[in-house]
Structures are given as structure tokens and as C-alpha cells.
Amino acid sequence: MPLASSGQARMHSPNTLPAQHTSKEPTMTSTLTTTHPDIVVDDAESHHTEPPTAAHRVTFGRIVSSEWFKFRTVRSNVIAIGGVAAAAIGFGALFASLAGSDDGPGRLAENSLSLSLGGFQLSQIIIAILGVALVASEYQTGLIRTWFGSAPDRLRVLNAKVAVYGALVFAVSLVAAVLAFLAGQALLPAGWEALALGSDGVLQALIGTAFYAACIGVIGIGLGFLLRSTAAGAGAVVTTLMIAPVMVNLLPSSIGDPLGKIMPSNAGNAVQGIESNAELLSTGWGLAVLVGWVVLIVGSAAISLKRRDA
User: Fold this and answer.
1) Regarding predicted confidence, which is higher, 30 or 217?
2) 32, 202, 229, 247: least surrounded by Cβ within 10 Å?
């Protein structure tokens, strides 16, 4: 049998399959092209959401950072905290310069140290009312609801506000106390003994003054969460720090003396160690009572946050 020429069809063996034309089938995955020419997103991957990483978590440190950012970017807050330092230094210097005269403050004129730090009698009111306003203003504007939506753990928000404001007030008050002390001692009239920073009881008075101011600020934060009103909180501050001690003195001594010792202002005086009389607690007991007031107010605010809507 003659062989087939190259132009004729060739016979295939049974075990040999003819060559088939293969075409590329379209795959199930497609791509989505964004408006940016260099960005292509795989459609198969676009249906999967990445789990939250550490970079997206709301941590206590980030809440503290946000609280500090909010405080320092509001001009009225900066002015108010500056007013605290100005009142403490200015009135302390004024009281010291008037020592021994009829124009000076009689109750504070026990020694040159009490005169120099007398300005904190006004500063403590500013500190407490500012603490109330920091919280109450957020309730009045509705910002607190947005804040709780971003940070659902409300106790973290409370603790962050307490930490930021308490630490800030302590630092500012400590610097103001030192400057008020130096200015007051320099302006004392003749006949008054000037003290130095290393004199007995001076460091305790300066640190105790700053600690008392920080506690008053934290109490203001707690009252802001409890009352949610700047006016009501300011009234509670003035009543607690100024009116209540006077009213207690009107009670019979068997009742008024024990109650007077545990007032926040008298406990703060005991922590400062400037005055020593039977109407005040010891330094240790004064510290315990002052911390007890902070725990009571802030603890009540925490319970209120858990039980009440924003």
C-alpha cells in the first residue's frame, strides 16, 4: 500500500488522541479597578474584612491622649488653669505684703507660710468649678454621647478625665505654690521671719497644697458626672468648700466639732500642715479623709455612669 503524502490526512492510532484546541476559560475571580490607575483590588479579597488590629483598638492610653488634646485645644480651659496659678501667686504675694497691717487677712496671718499660700483659698474654687464644667459641658452639647459611642467602656472615660485633670492640676498647683511662696517671702514686711524652701514644714506645705488642689479638681470631675449641670455643680462646690464649714460651726460643739474635722477643706488644711490646732485632724488622718471624699464622689459617679443613660 502506498504511503500517504504529506498533504493527505494521516491515520491516528487508537491510543493517540487528536490535538484539541484549548482556550482559556474565564476565571470566576475578577478585578475591580479603582479610579487610581495604579490600584487594583481583587474582588475575591474585597468580601473579607480584616479583623481589628492593635492599631485600631481604643485603649486607655489613647483615651487619655484624646482627653489631653481636648483640654489643651480649648482656649477657655487654658485661661482658667492659668487663672488658678495667677490667683494663687498674686493673692499670696498680696497677703504677705499686708502682713501685720489691719488690711491683711486676719485668719491667715498666723505665719509667713500661711500668708504666702493664702491665694489657694480662691484657686480651689476655680479648680473645682472647672472640673465640673469639663464634664457638664459635654452633656449639655451632646458630645458625651459621641464620646461614649467611640469608647463604649464609660469607666475608662471617667478614669481618663480624672487622670488628666488631676495630674494637670497637681503640676500647675505645685509650680504656683513654689512661686507664691518665694514671692510672699520676698515681700514680707520688716519684723516677719522669712522662710526658705528647706525650712521645717515648707516642703510638706507645698506638696500638700498641690495634692489638695488635685483632689478638689477630681471631686469636681465626679460632681460633673453626677449632676451633669455646670450651675448645679458650681453650687455644690461652693456649698461644700465654703458654706458647709461655716454652717457646721453653728451646730453644738458635740456635733459640730467632729463634722468640721471631716470637711474637705479642713482635711486639706491638715494635709498641708500649715495650721496646727484642735479643730484639725493629724496629717495622716487628714490625708485619709481627703482621699475618702475623692473615692466617695468618683465612686458615685462611676455607679451613675453604669445605671444612667448619657
Assistant:
1) 217
2) 32
Number of domains in the chain: 1
- What letter represents residue 301's amino acid? A
Question: Between 253-261 and 264-272, two packed helices, what is the crossing angle to 10 degrees?
Answer: 60
pTM score over 0.70: yes
Asked if residue 107 is part of any domain, the answer here is yes
Render the burial of 12-31: b for 16+ CB within 10 Å, e for the rest: eeeeeeeeeeeeeeeeeeee
End-to-end CA distance of the chain: 102
Say whether 65 sits in a helix, a strand or coil. Answer: helix
Residue 16 pLDDT > 70, yes or no?
no
How wide is the angle at C-alpha 218 spanned by C-alphas 211 and 118, nearest 5°?
45
State the helix-helix crossing angle for 264-272 and 202-227, rounded to 10 degrees: 160
Domain membership of residue 175 as a residue range: 60-307
pLDDT digits (tens, 9 = 90+) for 79-102: 999 999 999 999 999 998 888 766
* Model confidence pLDDT, tens digit, residues 25-72: 444 444 444 444 444 444 444 444 455 555 567 788 889 999 999 999
Helices 120-141 and 154-186: crossing angle, nearest 10°? 150
User: In whole numbers, what is the pLDDT of the chain averaged over residues?
Assistant: 82
Asked if residues 164 and 252 have their Cβ atoms less than 8 Å apart, the reply is no
Burial of 35 (0-12, 13-18, 19+ CB in 10 A): exposed
Establish if 202 belongs to a structural domain. Answer: yes
DSSP, collapsed to helix, strand or coil, labels residue 85 as helix
pLDDT per position as a tens digit, 116-172: 999 998 999 999 999 999 999 999 998 888 878 887 788 999 999 999 999 999 999
Angle at 257 between CA 203 and CA 295, to 5 degrees: 60
Look at residue 52 and tell me if it is in a domain. Answer: no
Question: Is residue 33 included in any domain, yes or no?
Answer: no
**At a CB cut-off of 8 Å and minimum separation 6, what does 195 contact?**
112, 113, 181, 185, 202
Whether residue 219 is predicted with pLDDT greater than 80 in this model: the reply is yes
- 214/236 Cα distance (integer angstroms): 17
